[in-house]
Amino acid sequence: MAALRTPGTGCPWDLEQNFRTIAPYTLEEAYEVADAIARDDLAGLKDELGDLLLQVVFHARMAQEQDAFGFGDVVEALTAKLIRRHPHVFADADGKTADAVKGLWERIKAEERAERGEKGAGGALAGVPVTHRAVTHEFVVVSGHVAPGHPESLVNWNALAAMSGTIVLLMAVERIELFAKVLLEGGRPADTPVLVVQHGTTAAQQTLRATLQEVAEKIRAEGIRPPAIIVIGDVAAFAGLKKS
User: 116 with 203, same domain?
Assistant: First the structure.
């Protein structure tokens, strides 16, 4: 990565990137890891984990260029966190059961948030009411590079339409009419909430909310183009979800 980011001899594309432009790729790689797991594709998981690791290396290199931190610092911080959050392994805290470990973990995280002056939970579930977080736990990640009905498609769209959880579509904006149609025909309710996020976590981020029935029309009307993530399910309806 240092070679790719070296002015004059490195890769022009890599040199143009910054944290905000790379962030959408980081999200996409994380979803592709989840997709490989959902498909029980261990060979694919190996590749996707490498792609996700590349994102960590990329961000760490950019931070090092700003004298903020390097990859080694990321590893050290992770090591310290694992030791701190597992006193039942590295110290003498009680952790003989999974429930005890879970309670210990939550207490330590709460202490860490308090030390940083934070209140409540943060991260990906910030803005989702605690009483509704269970709806985020049943989800399927689907790559939209192969259209429904295509001979190479391995997706059981009827099964997806029948599930009540969350569907995350990647690379699906250009074929959204096809995906919405197959889900509606498979029985997914027309009023199912949909959230579309274009250029997520960047200054150019655009967020669109719709129902499954109207999402294709709204995407075209707003001129949303890739890269974008489409979230289908009740979790998309929460008004408190972060938009930036």
Answer: no
